[in-house]
Design a protein that fits this description.
Helix 4 packs parallel to helix 9 (205-213) and helix 5 runs parallel beside helix 9 (205-213). By secondary structure, this protein is α/β, with parallel strands linked by helices. The protein is globular, with a radius of gyration of 22 Å. The chain is built from 17 helices and 10 strands.
């Protein structure tokens, strides 16, 4: 069972926080928003209870792992990459899953169109045993398709037409250019549901296939997310993820705190914060509304950003992602005990230091009158990560209703795409 908790005390008790009267005033709107979400047919709320996508992803992942694959390149951008990257960063060995007991091929992400990065991936990948997973619903995302065409050429040089056996498309099952290519060349495909947008797609085959390739327990991921859905259905506007939507909305609209900093006190959750930045920004930034999400990492950014958080403009809410039990710990050896500034560390552990610094940052922010809150994971496990991702999606959807915007479209992204298509010579633009 997932063990994830939410602590909002320092959003209501700290100087400049949200008042109880304001929460009471917004409660009817929040209850309506929660009811609307629960009664909707939104795909991201249905995914955790759907097993067929996990089964299909796991079966194909087994084929890839059993084929002797050494490398797995995911070509995708935005929601087609950030979710899979968040899962790998959180739950696998940070320097390739081959170094853990999970096994499987090295997993690479061809996300940006930077040729230096893609070239570096091809430098280390072994072409005869490399698989490519192309993730785009439309099959026309310029960045993704450009990366695929380069990787396709890399594989074709080594395997000829056999590159098709090492290619998987994750795409719309009914239409789009990848569907057309798949029909033409007999390439394996996994579906993205019509009613699930890219930034909400981490628990579709978009995230489940690379997770299974990396040896992650996709059933446990979905179980954690399903627990969240069940609790939201039971508690409605009383669920902490839903309450958080109201608090962050009020912090923006009633307090002028329009920057939401998600500061992960675990390197494993650094990409989760980056995933959330897209989720919150692209879902809510419409019609002149929405707060600006920002990702940070503790303790690293205590030495670069916390000065601003502590004494800069009163325009931020700091949200800490905290891990109580880290999957690994290292004892700090005793040395230089005659030096006061060094010797005191000996006998403690690295996880202890990380968690003490996390607590110290929250305490210092509170004493400085800087609103902050925390999401705490008992440990970084598939169940807890699945719960966390689902809860943040729920919170974003509810916040969209409070802001009065459509949380599931992204019209502001299209203009730049159209200009790119025109300048690159796509017919019809």
């Amino acid at each position: 069972m997932a063990e994830v908790s939410f602590d909002y005390r320092n959003l209501t008790e700290v100087e400049g926080g949200v008042r109880e009267a304001e929460l009471d005033e917004i409660k009817p709107r929040l209850e309506d928003a929660a009811k609307e979400l629960i009664e909707s047919d939104l795909g991201f709320m249905q995914l955790p209870g759907t097993t067929r996508y996990a089964e299909a992803s796991r079966a194909l992942a087994d084929d890839i792992r059993n084929s002797g694959a050494t490398d797995f390149i995911l070509c995708g951008i935005g929601g087609s990459a950030l979710g899979p990257m968040a899962l790998q960063k959180a739950l696998n060995h940070p320097y390739y899953n081959q170094l853990s007991d999970r096994g499987g091929p090295r997993i690479h992400f061809a996300e940006n169109t930077d040729p230096t990065t893609l070239g570096a991936i091809l430098d280390v990948a072994e072409p005869e045993s490399t698989w490519v997973n192309v993730v785009t619903k439309s099959g026309s995302t310029a960045e993704t398709m450009a990366n695929f065409l380069v990787v396709r050429g890399f594989l074709e040089d080594a395997l000829g037409d056999g590159y098709r056996e090492h290619t998987v498309f994750t795409t719309d099952p009914e239409e789009g250019f990848l569907k057309e290519i798949s029909d033409r060349e007999g390439i394996k495909t996994l579906p993205i549901q019509q009613n699930v947008g890219g930034r909400f797609s981490v628990l579709t085959p978009v995230g489940l296939l690379p997770a299974a390739v990396g040896g992650l327990d996709v059933d446990a991921l979905l179980a954690g997310a399903a627990q969240c859905v069940e609790e939201v259905n039971e508690r409605g506007a009383e669920h902490p993820a839903v309450v958080g939507a109201a608090l962050h909305y009020l912090m923006d609209t009633a307090r002028g705190r329009n920057v939401r900093v998600m500061m992960a006190y675990a390197d494993a959750l650094e990409r989760t914060a980056a995933w959330f930045v897209q989720l919150w920004a692209e879902s809510l930034g419409k019609d002149g509304k929405g707060s600006t999400p920002h990702a940070a990492v503790g303790t690293t950014d205590q030495h670069s950003q916390v000065q601003l958080f502590m004494e800069g403009p009163q325009d931020k809410v700091i949200e800490i992602l905290q891990v109580e039990n880290h999957p690994r710990d290292l004892e700090i050896p005793r040395a230089y005990e005659d030096l006061d500034g060094v010797g005191y560390l000996g006998g403690h552990t690295m996880a202890e230091l990380l968690n003490v610094e996390c607590d110290a940052t929250q305490k210092a922010l509170t004493e400085a009158g800087r609103p902050n809150c925390a999401i705490r994971l008992r440990e970084v496990s598939e169940e807890n990560v699945g719960y966390l991702l689902q809860a943040l999606e729920v919170q974003t959807a509810v916040a969209g209703t409070l802001y009065g915007v459509n949380a599931f479209n992204q019209p502001g992204v299209e203009a730049g795409k159209n200009i790119t298509y025109e300048r690159m010579g796509r017919p019809g633009y």
